[in-house]
Automatic annotation (TrEMBL), chains A, B:
Organism: OM182 bacterium MED-G28
Keywords: Transferase
Protein name: Sulfurtransferase complex subunit TusB
GO CC, alphabetical: sulfurtransferase complex
InterPro entries, alphabetized: DsrEFH-like, Sulphur_relay_TusB/DsrH
Pfam families from the UniProt entry: DsrH
MF terms (GO), sorted A to Z: transferase activity
GO BP term, example: tRNA wobble position uridine thiolation
Automatic annotation (TrEMBL), chains C, D:
Protein species of origin: OM182 bacterium MED-G28
GO molecular-function term, one example from the UniProt record: sulfur carrier activity
GO terms under biological process: tRNA wobble position uridine thiolation
Pfam families xrefs: DsrE
Subcellular location field: Cytoplasm
Protein name: Sulfurtransferase complex subunit TusD
UniProtKB/TrEMBL annotation, chains E, F:
GO molecular function list: transferase activity
Gene3D superfamilies noted in UniProt: DsrEFH-like
Name of the protein: Sulfurtransferase complex subunit TusC
Similarity comment text for this entry: Belongs to the DsrF/TusC family.
Organism field: OM182 bacterium MED-G28
Gene: tusC
Classification lineage: Bacteria, Pseudomonadati, Pseudomonadota, Gammaproteobacteria, OMG group
Matching InterPro entries: DsrEFH-like (IPR027396), Sulphur_relay_DsrE/F-like (IPR003787), Sulphur_relay_TusC/DsrF (IPR017462)
Keyword terms: Transferase
Keyword Transferase: yes
Keyword Transferase (UniProt): yes
Amino acid sequence: MSTLHTISKSPKSQLLSECLPLVNKGDGILFIEDGVYYCANSKVSDDFESDVTWYGLKEDLDARGLKLDDIKTIKIINYQIFVEMCEEFDKVISWF
Amino acid sequence: MSTLHTISKSPKSQLLSECLPLVNKGDGILFIEDGVYYCANSKVSDDFESDVTWYGLKEDLDARGLKLDDIKTIKIINYQIFVEMCEEFDKVISWF
Amino acid sequence: MKFTIVVYAAPYSSQAAATAFNFSKTLLSEGHEIYRLFFFSDGAHNTNKLATVPQGETNLQASWDDLIRDYDLDSAVCVSSAIKRGIVDKQEAERHELSAVSLFESSDIAGLGQLIDAAINSDRLLNFG
Amino acid sequence: MKFTIVVYAAPYSSQAAATAFNFSKTLLSEGHEIYRLFFFSDGAHNTNKLATVPQGETNLQASWDDLIRDYDLDSAVCVSSAIKRGIVDKQEAERHELSAVSLFESSDIAGLGQLIDAAINSDRLLNFG
Amino acid sequence: MNATQKQTFTFISRTAPYGSNRPQLCLDTALAAAVFEQQVNYLFMEDGVYQLLKNQDAEAIHTKTIGRILETLNLYGIESIYVCKESLESRGLLLGDLVIESKLTNANELKTLLNSSDTVINL
Amino acid sequence: MNATQKQTFTFISRTAPYGSNRPQLCLDTALAAAVFEQQVNYLFMEDGVYQLLKNQDAEAIHTKTIGRILETLNLYGIESIYVCKESLESRGLLLGDLVIESKLTNANELKTLLNSSDTVINL
């Protein structure tokens, strides 16, 4: 069973470090709302593990002025693809 | 001018480390609500600086089962004294 | 695919309720189904029919109401969350002798069993808070 | 000493509104004065008169209303916060053609100028959120 | 509701008591799941472990004392209770500080637990 | 209100835009203070510095774009704008990334600023 984890608070929340120990190989992590600031700091995103797929919500990135060239390992998806991904993964766990 | 700073979120919020750089000598720091968990961990409270006076709100400590003997450098005050302290300090800054 | 959407957050003070709305609207327009909307805790505030917003801003409560009616969705508000927050239908208003009704007619007061039922009978449950 | 109390938080979902209430009650019983209560953002939800709670629990909205009336306090709700959240007095309800009034009569709809005025004319301003 | 459908619900309670209503929301939902005879796992993690501290008394802040409710969690049909080992240790807490006896669980066991759950409520 | 009473208000905006309404509350209150001709200091600290990022466009999430409003902050009578140096640096941001030119201020200067303020709104 694969899980999509959504993270919706800024890095100050430490939500990613709460979430990561519970992430299984093959899971996805999607940053939404203020969670997209995890994509802003290249120091953070360079550490992203590769046995997890990383996503950022386009609408929230655009709102916050976060440029694509800051972001290396993260796939930018919009709401339509967010919905599709909920189908691809077996369940969704929200971190807020 | 002296300031009373209130901190009302658990240590996970990192509010104390946001607050401390802006604290002047002679200021007070009062933990209320989930802020009182700053008093729970003796590792944290041993580091409290001595040119600031540290307070914890009794009602919130009692509710959470935080025992007095865990707490060394912190004065336990109730709501009445909280009100009095607002008089003693020249202003109050809330961290939440 | 059948989704259940659980909303824990009030509108306006955080983005979560708006995200839940955008997600719900998108999944419906993509041809998926909503088994149930469940408004829990401060999420109950999304179902207050007495809200108005300045011109040019989005009335999120009215947007939910529109979406629920357009797609004939099952929309439930947790009863213990709702009554504490002044969100009452006609029946609750009469029972507690309140002067007015504040809940949109498109949503129903419900117990937590409706959330468990929704989790069991949906393909996916998403929480927004 | 004259205090102004600003409340940003809704009742029940966080402790902040209850803390603001306990602090206000204590300072009044100690003989101090409240220049103004100011309900801002989700704090507006504290002034909703349609709330009821299960027996044995505290109705925080009704507690505020009692305190305001007992001490004849000046209690203001930020207008833009209030109307978005369905907190309306008779005048706002009529203006926006709403079916009901939800604001306690003990509080008044007010602009942010009332918060600045309160800061200037109080000895201490405390924020609870 | 079809009573024959039995699913696995896992509740993760990650927040401290009293400062927010999240511990209560999580608990109420788990109790509802237990009433409907679902398989319920309950996990205390991060600040959530503070809910289990002994000697809580929320009388002074006019609230129900959560610790006292959690003492009797197994009476309500919630028997699979987990406490995250790392969360407890990083807060300088010991099992003896808690109101219930429960399994101390490490991250690897928790991964398996989440993986086998149908629905996860994470508050 | 007695217009002769001029006080010093300091607003600390510590939170990221869009995720919560706190940046907007802080801004609205500061604008009200400026309208009443008070001395207004405005400080961006911690995640608050993200409000000043260039190229924001909140159209897609149906909200006002805060960065665009902040660009013209000085037109509204708020001229003492401070950005916390440490907050900017720890987020890997440069002054050139921001929509306004402002004083980069270190903790010691901020201490003095707070010390000389009559009222501090900290959101």
